[in-house]
Design brief:
There is one protein chain. The chain has 692 residues and is α/β, with parallel strands linked by helices. It folds into four domains: 258 residues, Aconitase, domain 3; 38 residues, no CATH class; 148 residues, Aconitase, domain 3; 183 residues, Aconitase, domain 4, CATH 3.20.19. It is 29% helix and 20% strand. Strands 24-25-26-27-30-29-28 form a seven-stranded mixed beta barrel, surrounded by four helices. Helix 2 packs across helix 5 and helix 6 runs parallel beside helix 7. The two termini are 37 Å apart. The structure holds alpha-methylisocitric acid and iron/sulfur cluster (SF4). The site of iron/sulfur cluster has 10 residues, from loops.
Length: 692
Amino acid sequence: MRGTLTEKILADHLVDGELTVGSEIGIRIDQTLTQDATGTTAFGLFEAMGAPRVRTELSVSYVDHNMAQFGPENHNDHLYLQSVAAKVGAYHSRPGNGICHQVHLERFATPGRTLLGSDSHTPTAGGMGALAMGAGGLDVAVAMGGGAFYLTSPAVVAVELQGRLGDWVVPKDIILKLLSILTTGGNVGAVVEYCGEGVASLSVPARATCTNMGAELGVTTSVFGADEVTQAFLAAQGRSDQFTALAADANAEYDRITKHLHAERDAAVIENIRRHCPDAQIGRADGDGTVEVSFSRVVIDLSDLAPLAATPSSPGNVAAIADLAGTKVDQVIIGSCTNSSLCDMMVVAAVLKGRKVHPRVELGIAPGSRGVLKMLADNGALADMVSAGARILECGCGPCIGQGFSPGSDRVSLRTFNRNFAGRSGTKGDKVYLVSPEVAVAAAITGEITDPRRLDMKYPEIPEVANFTIDDGMIIPPLPPDEAGRIEIIRGPTIVKPPAGKPLPEKIDGKVIIKVGDKITTDHIMPAGTLLKLRSNVPEYAKHVFAPLNEPGRPTFAERATEAGQAGHAGVIVAGDSYGQGSSREHAALCPMYLGVRVVIAKAVERIHQANLVNFAILPLTFAESSDYDRIDAGDRLIIEDVAGAVASAETVTVHNATQDFDFTCRVNLSGRQRKILTAGGLLNYTRQANG
Ligand code: MIC
Ligand code: SF4
């Protein structure tokens, strides 16, 4: 990664280790962000660590997820977060002020700085040239206390943008194109670095759309440089003084990443790689059809792109709008941290102006920040939306995390969001397509998926504003230390202290509570929607672990895990590839831990989830032979002798399947520090021990 942007920022912040791809490094974190759904736990753990004040340059606590306020839970959370932020020295962005990533981009993100957020879409700030990463709340709590953030020194891949986007083709189409090349799996430990002459034509929010949805690639983060466009954006935000130019060296060296694909099932992906990666090496298929592919550079010519969509139910199911055109649409929602900038909203308003929403379609619009909403109100665009029949939603996550607007049964919903995992909208069997605001608004007026280039109108070019309306009145600054002492932390009865991890036993006598397939997301493990309000109450939330996979009339995962625990067995989860995709929610580790789960054995585990498992003292193992996955059944008893010894130093461990009487080998892919954390019984205990 010599001479890359990523290397420069990492080198500037390195406090432990060396920048060699694959080795563990510790970096200093300049800024943190938390949002309410992960923030109550993060601040609870921060309090449990005993640190009196945050030690970062800036920590911001946002409220944007849990705002529906059915029952007292949400408001209790808000009051807790506001009071704890004031006490410990964090800024507090109040409910209604906007989505954390959009507000952070506008008001706080700074080129060349590191940002750690308890939300997987924190890389949005990479559009500004920040090295911004998502992590579990406990990692963020440690960073707030001034501790280093540990990660694998990444392989940096170049995404070179050439040419210019045509009319109606937008950044969402760039990132969807990239998803069709890199896919949602197999990119753990990589950073996507954008370069090329095409970058200059993209605004900061446009860049942020690309880096935001880099989360769906499963990479550590995505980043752009900081140039005149960045400088102008910062000036419009009244933050010119925070600009620093940032660029990779002209002769920067990027790293090869290796992917294992299937010759037949992934034929389209392999073809995309052949077409877009000039230095691709594509091996021959082995006996079971696996092809090894490696490359260090992806080239996308913006002028070749056409409007795209991710079809149900994965951001990786990319298809051309031209091939979907004519599909009847029942619901359109525009917003989320991916596409809720002023420019996105202005294009939508321009298309809606003087038109009416199609009678079949319900249209919801959620501007990303109060600043954006205020500007839409001031310049008349909001009136155009309202006149067209749009339902204006609060500035927040809303439908993106299943807080309302669940589509009807079997209804097609087009959303400008970043995730369409099955059931995330709150409707079982949902049909959610992820599209650009341009495609979304075209469908809103035609009632069907429509290539916006076929609309009978000129593309509304929206110039970047020179002066953004700035009103930070809903961002409460922290109190100075001498005044903070008088703050009472408000802890409503629905806020329950998060449990700490426990050291692993000498020997695991485990039972497989569930066996799941590939690409299990954290939305499967710990669903949000109407359950989101239970985030501050682990004992209650834990009752719903794997709820979407529970079968009617059969004991739930929680009941099976509890019963196994009562019989003296540790819970084991067996999973396929890309386990724990999606969000950063540490509840996907914390709640299983609460139910007695001590081991996850998977074909592969995604980065943030792996860290969360370790942080809560659940041992993540991977199959040495992936075919062993097929030999295990739910309910099997699995024994791991001397697990403490394996965690301390072994590269592999033998697992005995006592039900079927065979042994198999698992890899213990852990860094030295992760081994110590597991031995200590989780990151909280480890941090307490380290701080004496
Ligand atoms: C998401 O988009 O899935 C979330 C909700 O923002 C999560 C965080 C959470 O579960 O609270 C994320 O992306 O990390
Ligand atoms: Fe909120 Fe959706 Fe963005 Fe997550 S992806 S932060 S739920 S808007």
